[in-house]
User: Fold these one by one.
Assistant:
Number 1:
Amino acid sequence: MRDRRSRIFYVLSIVFGLYVLFLYGPIITITILSFQGPNGGLTFPMNGVSLHWFSNLWAGIGVPNVVGALENSLKLGLVVTVLTVVISVMAGLAFRRKFRGRNALFYTAIASLTLPSIVVSLGIALEFQLANQSISAAGDSLVDQFGSSDNHSPVATVLGGIGAAIQDNFQTLMGLFTSGLGAHLTWTLPFGLLILFAVFNRFNRSYEEASRDLGASAWQAFRHVVLPIIAPSLLGVALFGFTLSWDEIARSSQAVGAVNTLPLTLQGLTTTVTTPVIYALGTVTTGISLAVIVCILGCVFFVQARRRRHGSDAGRGLV
Amino acid sequence: MLDNYALAFNKCAGFPDLCTTFRTYLSTLKFCAIVWTVTLVLGFTIAYYLNFEIRSTTTRIVLALICTIPFWTSNVIRMISWIPLLGRNGLINQILLNLGVIHQPLEWLLYSDFSVTLALVHINTVFMIVPILNSMSRIDRSLVEAAYDAGATGWQTLWNVIIPLSKAGITIGSIFVITIVMGDFVTTGVMGGQQIASAGKVIETEIGALQFPIAAAQAIILLAIVLMIIWTLIRFVDIRKEL
């Protein structure tokens, strides 16, 4: 089988090599440039080597709160990851049965991937504005009806009080963990769903049936049989959940409300910042992404290696 | 009731001068066509290389991971990363100047149609590679062998066996790339120096100006165009079978 490599192999290897260079070249460049000396500029040559721009970044770079944006992104990313994994698993389990509207639901979920992000973002923003308006209007009408009237029944007083409280305190429903979370889920959930559909399509049900035959309850069968089998795929879903949310920009752009996530802040910085500090920020962001990827891929390989060691000895004979 | 749509196509009656909206959509479609072609050829080539030319499974997994890891890192950072390479004093201009190929820095490298296209290809090729690789990995090798045995040349095998069997992956990849490029405003914004118009950018600008009704009308127009393209593509493939 090990015949000589054809000429095409070498040509394609070169193409592949160039593609990898194209893929990684830029990011390697800015990683190098982020260690630029204090007097260095945005391009080569390097003017000494230092951590100047990283300490500059840490001190806050004069733009509103990069560190805050980083925290926002981390928090949101974690919540999105957990929700994506939980909802995808539940949906995957549900889709193993036949139910009415199954196909419609499937295509609706997948359609979210194919909608232009700006359209989704605008839709969510408008939805929340309508909700805001109706809440404010409800507050106003409560105050109008009960606020200053001579009707002093307890109910009227309470309703008037609620109206006044809405008028005084209510600003917007939009925020990181309402509209922002929703926007991110429209992007991460379809990926999670697709992965789990693929997993359950290949899932061998006889393991589950065997556990039922041995007297496991539905929950036990899920907890001790199904969950361990799909665990590596769940790590994959988590990887998609976190990294897609961590870098998400188009869908968040109109929908996060007053606060900013890291990519949005970064996008703003591209037009205002003219020092290598932006490269330092890029290096840090990419570093965090890579750390998450390596962690999760490491976990996947660990789980699979462990499975091979502790797995079934069926078919190995009596040795 | 259709006022917002009328406004979206403001002053579109006066041919032969195309109105702004039509020009914007034409330019977006142009980017879309170029990026789609390049990512398709590049993505198909790489998927072919990984699936048919790499023999060991471990190597294949590692190489495929190398291709997909950047997908999980920040797009904005990956766009910014082009600045030190393409800028007026960037690496490419420096090298070309030193080699004496050019005598003045090239201006069209950054903040131009070229840089937008480059960044879009850079970011979106992975969306072609993964689905095509997925389809190709299911091609029965004996079919390829049979084609050779029956006397087909390499190109004939590619054209008559491999491409038809990868059709589903090609379609799914195309749907991804086309939707992303049609709705894009971030890449066009950052790499175009906020100077190049695209359908998504127009919507973003209108939202920025609090022109929500017109923005919504534009969004529906964009959505209709994208859905028409997807509708056409999806007739070639049943997505459920691909999972």
Number 2:
Amino acid sequence: MTRTAVAPPTKGDTPRKSAGPLARLRDPAWYQTYGVYMAVAVVLLFNALFTDHFMTADNFRTQLVQVAPIVIVALGMALVIGTEGVDLSVGSTMALAAAFLPLYLGYGLVPALVVALLAGAVVGAVNGALVSLVGLQPIVATLALFVGGRGLALVMADGQLKQIVNPDLLSLGTGSVLGIPLVVWIAGVLAAAVAFLVQRTTFGRQVVAVGGNRSAAALAGLPVKRILIGVYVICGVLAALAGILATARLTASDPSSLGTLMELSAITAVVVGGTPLDGGSVRVLGTVAGALLMQLLRATLVKHDLPDSTAQIAQAAIIIAAVYVARERRSR
Amino acid sequence: MAPPEAIPQAPEAAGRTASAVLEARSVSKRFPGVVALDDVTFSLRAGETHALVGENGAGKSTLIKVLTGVYRPDGGELRMTGEPVRFARPAEAQHAGISTIYQEVNLVPLMSVARNIFLGREPRNRFGLIDFARMHRETGELLDGFGVRVDPRRPLHTLGVGTQQMVALARAVSVNAQVVIMDEPTSSLEPREVETLFRVIGRLRGQGIAVLYVSHRMDELYRICDRVTVLRDGRHIHTGALADLDRMQLVSMMLGRDLSDVRRSGVTSFAAEGHEAARAPVLTATGLSSRLQLHGISVSLYAGEVLGLGGLLGSGRSETAKALSGALPLDAGELTVDGTTLKRLTPAAAIRAGISLLPEDRKAEGIVPGLSVRENIVLAAMPRLSRAGVVSRAKQDRIVDIFMERLRIKASSPEQKVGELSGGNQQKVLLARWLCLEPKVLLLDEPTRGIDVGAKAEVQSLIDDLAREGLAVLLISSDIEELIEGADRIVVLRGGAVAGELSGDDVAEDRLLEVLADHAPEPADRAPATQEDPR
Amino acid sequence: MNETEPVTAAPAPPEAPAPRPERTGRQRAAELLQRQGVLAVLLAVVIAASFVYPTFASLDNARGVTIQASFLAVVALGMTMVIITGGIDLSVGSVFALGGVLAAWASQHGFLAALLLPLLVCGGIGLLNGLLIARGNMAPFIVTLATLLGARGLLLALTDEGATTRLVPEDSAFGELGQGSVWGFGHPVLIALVLFGAGGLVLQRTSFGQTLFAVGGSSDAATLMGLPVARTKILVYTLSGLLAGLAGALNAARLSSGVTIVGVGMELDAISAVVIGGTLLVGGAGSISGTLWGVLLLAVIQNLINQIGSLNSSYQSVVSGGFLIVVVVAQRYLARSRTST
């Protein structure tokens, strides 16, 4: 993330001419943007040909339900990464939301949901304040919340697993509309909402600008601190929502293990989806595709009886590949 | 100013053609869309001080980067004392005996003076570990020879820019170089330090070390350099003794313009006539102070007038511009626009009051490279072009079209990523960003730095037009000619405070240099920030 | 904590140009606090705890705390150097676990094999990190994130998906390395101390150490000054891998088995210790000793919470998290008052 003093000048007025269609395949920038969609297509094709029972509605439903929480968290993570930040606390926020739920369900579903989401917002606000007002590195600030958040969740739940019996909450987890599970609908709607936010609203464009060049954004009068706090709050709320939905599906609130390693999955989805780590652009559809790709990859390996270890190594290789095509090119 | 010292001439250099210690033969360097160097041949003799001149964009820094191993040439070759050499990285050039000091101090700020000087070649004790005692001692001796008294253990960033530059020079010289390349070395030095530098150059000459001196300061070049090489648009134009060229001839070669043309209309594209200033000031700043950077700056800007802000690097010009636009946190001071005093000093408040700042470093503080031309232009105006938080494309497109045409911004479309544009067009995009806010006051910090000649001319005439249309313009430029010809009035800063003001006929090069060099003794109650420039 | 310049009063030079006035008393105090603050806090906590909980102040407890901390310490040593260059290594937890598994497996072939195999493989992983980062020009965060996953995957593959736990042969020299002690303090503790001593020496007194600071302080300046930036980066990540592997091997020796589930989240503990110890995450400044105090502080806190007994062990996380925030925020303000001129 350092700007190099040895970068070549961009002199000359000749704008880039468009080359033929196949030339695009040789352009690494194309891969960064569209590579993930190609990869998803390849995996689907592979499975269509070689995996039994893959192209069934049932399987698709299962895959989508499993990936939905990751998508929701990754949406928030994409916004944070778009400002050149990162949020390591999302898993703990999920656990925190899960811990709050059983305590307030006695008052009804809506109050409990509000409290849980509020908890996520508060975590996000603290993260945002530490980053923008105190000036901490995002890794450090969210690391602290990562550690403290799960601890707090465990304290509140006394380290215990609690069964969920509230029928409304349970139906959130298992219900379907038009044959598509509710959680998938929610993830889809949120993805569309975040995409709209990023592309068409002032706030969204300002988020991208802040990530692209924070000093320039500040000098242009953008409310940088407010924007930073905003993205972390959104990320916190989305993580809390994912925690609620996961709890509903599990029919139990388990703060000790909920959301473990979720930050890794979310960051992976964002990076593989083509959003650069040093900020300046947010690819919402790419993030969704990135999460899908990783999910399908895992599922493919499972269905072919390949062990977890292979899945992890494959994941690692894909991340490297995704970053490789995205790296800044230096000319000497 | 003290009369120039006699610079000792190296015996070999006088009367006999010394051998070339460093040569570039038919060197070319291309970047996507740009030919930075085109078949350039040039040679440096042992013991000579050789000037390298050219406008911004002429290829000077590219040539230096090729000579120092930062870039590899696409064509041609380099030779040292007749033998072909190839540098894959800066370390190799340094080992071959080529040392460089840059305009921006390229040392490690958090490390101490001594560590910086000896980085990569620390003296060892018999166990192979770094001998700090010897390192500090040798640093002290080295700096003493330069007339610089600094504790070798002090972190570099606590020193003023001028002193940091002297440390960089000490390092460059101490590495037993055969060639020392100096890229605009005096831009951050006090006159006293400039004398030190020239003394050192004299010593280098006596040792047979060649100095390649890049600068646009004519006085210095004519004082210490033997020969000069002129580059223009990446091509080699001329090499010869400086004594055979007068200033005007040199300048017209640099610009590629006819000598009589230059004599008549000046060096820049500013109109010869000045502007009509309004009576009452549109912006008044009183007593702007910021810890160790600014001390009680008071200045007024009038509609229709171009106010130049002069001073050496580190004198506080950029900080003043930032303070005037709310981007610098202040300890004291007030800003009044059209009679109303601003309550809060933030960039957003300044923008609302009609003040716009074009910052010095367009890469770090100006353009958002990943966004399109359109989005860069509307960045500051976005809230005004949106409805209920949703962006209105139609409104944006209208504004963008107007300004792309007016400023003649060359891009394949408004959606092109601004990082792909040339420096000149990027600068125009930034100007458009501020102009579309319809400001009353426009603060320009080095608006033509690092852009090609053509764009430079366009920007200069644009500034003229804007002043004529009634904008109050503040112009900061380290290009003396640009400052003299562009400004109606000049305020000179030194050490973060106002040192003088020039108006009318006094807006001329000799008067400006006088004020810049004038060293009035510091009153006791002022913070001691003049000997060492505040950061 | 900045080891790049010792705290000495510079004599005011007699003649012009007068350098800027010596840092004010307040700035010097801030500097001292930032450097040695962790040590001060550690001592304060230890002393206070010794009074309140007599069981804390026993030699036995000290032995327990230090042996627990020694493994994280070795890992954090490598992490310190990586962070000083402005990078980060998220893979150390997985590499730690991998080192243990490899050591346990190789221990059947003797002491040397048990040490060499983990060093070779884990050093190799570090080398891979370094190459991708320095030559591939990719961000350390994401490269080491990928290695985190890959190394853990490799570990699973080697242990039948985590099912197999190999045992270190009884009465082996290797086992003795992990379980033996000198004056009651385990071998790993002594090894950690020796490594820290060596590390401090390397950081402070060798060209390599200076280059680490230079690369972290300004990578561009370091390149222009002719320093071997790429080679240094590759070396430092390799070192990080080696140290993590060594720590894992020692842990296996102590547990007498290659436990597969260790090391999860260890990288974050290491980062916490390093940051608490005063090393700046942006690079360019830091100290080995600070990391040592940071590691000890975290270990002491964990130990205290266990001592207190009535407290839910989850409180440890909360306290650690809160601690991290407090320390880092304090450092931020101290750094500001120190570098503001």
Number 3:
Amino acid sequence: MGATMSDDASGARRFRRTLAAVMLVQVATLCALWLLQWTFSA
Amino acid sequence: MHPLNWAIVVGWLAYVVVHGIRRSTGTKQIEGYFLANRSLPWWAVGLSVMATQLSAVTMIGTTGQGATDGMRFVQFYFGLPLAMVILGVTLVPFLHGSGVYTAYEFLERRFDAKTRSLTAFLFLVSRAMSCGTIISAPAVVFSAIFGWSIAWSVAIIGVPAVLYTMIGGVQAVTWVDVKQMMLIVTAIVAVTITLLVQIPVSPSDALHIAGATGRLRVFDFSFSLTNTYTFWSGVIGGTFLMLSYFGTDQSQVQRYLAAKSVDEARSSLLISAYWKIPLQAMVLLIGVLVFVFYQFERPPLLFNPAHERRVRAEQPAVYGSLESRYAADVAARDVAARAVAQARDHGSDADAAAAMDRYRAQQAGVDTVRTEALALAERVTGQPSKDVNYIIPRYVLDHLPIGLAGLFIAAVIAAAMNAISGELNSLSTATVIDFYRRWVRPVASDEHFMIVSRAATGLWGIFACIIATYAVNLGSLIEVVNRFGSFFYGSILGVFLLSMIPRARASGAFVGLLAGMAAVGAVNFGAPSVSFLWHNVVGAVTVVVVGMIISAAGRVGGGAGPTPARV
């Protein structure tokens, strides 16, 4: 039982880390697309 | 096409069939055939999920859209990362943890058999028709370009996919998807590099020329219920659409049910969250670069060769006159585009701005002649021109180096096969698990279920190929089916959302599902201009609200159904 809870906690921690990374990549992608529009559509 | 290009296409088709069949180990039981014994690594599942959504329409239609309309289509996917994260926390643990074969099987455990059967039936109807259209779209293009019959084009795309899916099940589908995704990404990168080399101005000048025509305008922050491609439609409507697609559609759910664990299933979805928007932007950028390429190379007046031949034969004088005007306008635009690059590199800001204005005026002239030619083609052929779907294939065949053209055509066929194989596999699963084993033959040997499963895959494959062959004549019927599909996508999501609310009951789920579809139908007929992205929001919200009211009324009236089974 203890091992299961530990696995759950580690899985949840990994998921939170991945979630933060996904959001970071999305913000970077949107910034890159905004920069593309701003630089070349003026 | 050059024989070397054909050799690449034929070689790739042979390779994927052999590879798919060789990877079909452990498929003697239905758990192996449908779920790979829940043993697949997250990265293979993730690539397979991406491959299933990336059809040939993406390779030829979306790139064409980039050439004519620019980058704004990418906003459609802005809700995807958020949807993947929400699914990772909510539905994925429920579905994977419950040990089901299909998403709809989960609904019977949580609610009742009629909710399961209705949702599975709606899935079968819509996916079978969409599978036909997925084959039909590239088959029509290949038919027009290579002069093949539609049946032959359908067979080239459909037969290899049906073959390896039928024999190898989900293992074959997944591992072939992985290989084909590598081919597709290689082709996309190779074509992008080739275009940058072929365009006779610097990449910066090329992008300025594209930007001058609005093709690099990605963001539209206006709030409109009728415009599909805005930031808000993408973020709000797109999130609901992606939640429906990835969370409740068996063609997607089956992929991550085959993962080793809940964590691996979640991680597989996050591959799409990471890569979908950059990949889609890259696909659209190819279209934008092809547009720039044709500023310096004379493009055909009509890209669809079949339409071009017919218009030239039936209206030679009118078409000849349009061609003369087009040639003059394109030549003038070429000079104006080169002047933009020259002014940007060596002139003042004022020179560059003036050159840009002259270029825009020339581009408007070219657009006017093209619009007239497209209208003429529609009048002569009696068909919508759909010229946008022929822009990239014509560029590939006319201007890509030998070898690379074959690689790109193989990638288009690969994309079509990926989408078909995933859908056939899921159609077969829902047929066998949700109907045959549930209602006809609950107990039988694995050998028996394997024979039925392979037969179901083959029969759905034949059905999809027949629909694809006659899709040109069934146009309005397919539109009706697709419209019908949008009625229940969000509603099915609503049922799954209800399944996670402990107080929701079976009667609430079933009545809510019907109410959700009715609400979407009312919006569709009452306000037809509302974008289909919002249908999912309306459907899901209606199901949850009505479902909870009915569930509460059942409890107050003492007529509560059985306590929901634990999942």
